[in-house]
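Let us work through a complete example step by step.
Step 1: write down the sequence.
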Amino acid sequence: MIRLIALLIGLTLLLSISASGQLRLVPMKYSKVKLVNGKHSKVVDLDEVLIGSNGSLAGNPPHKYRVLFRASKEGFFYVVAYVRSSSPISNPMGPCGGDRPEAILWIKADQKFETAEFQSEIYASCSYNYYNSKLRITSSSLRAEYGGRTLKTLRYNNLSPNLGLIVTEMIEQPLKPK
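Step 2: predict the structure and record it as tokens.
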């Protein structure tokens, strides 16, 4: 009986926490997603907001999303999602035709979506010459190692979600003749 009461109290607490504000990501058509926070929602076209230094979605629609982390800090909600897309190469028999590009998407938003920031980094794609990519996910962070001649590392820490996705580059030095 005591276990049942403890289970009900825990379930009630969990429902009240999730109802009070965890940013959710709902896929829509093409590159659009619906951001949902309780009663508030906003439809965003990720192709429009991920321009320039913010990155881009990997490949072409349909995009598949899997939320990896959620956090809230200083009045903002954060979501980090794994994104897998269809090949940007139209000929499936051509070079990279079977490519399934992968990216990490970071979203920061206030409760009513009056302010929102987006960041994305492609870490696995034949089209970008990112072979042998490695993604490691722990309970509070992720790390991806990828690249060609320029080796890159993508990091995210859910204990400091406001820092976003951190990418470092290391240019591979050519071997010197002996």
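Step 3: interpret the result. The longest strand covers residues 60-73.
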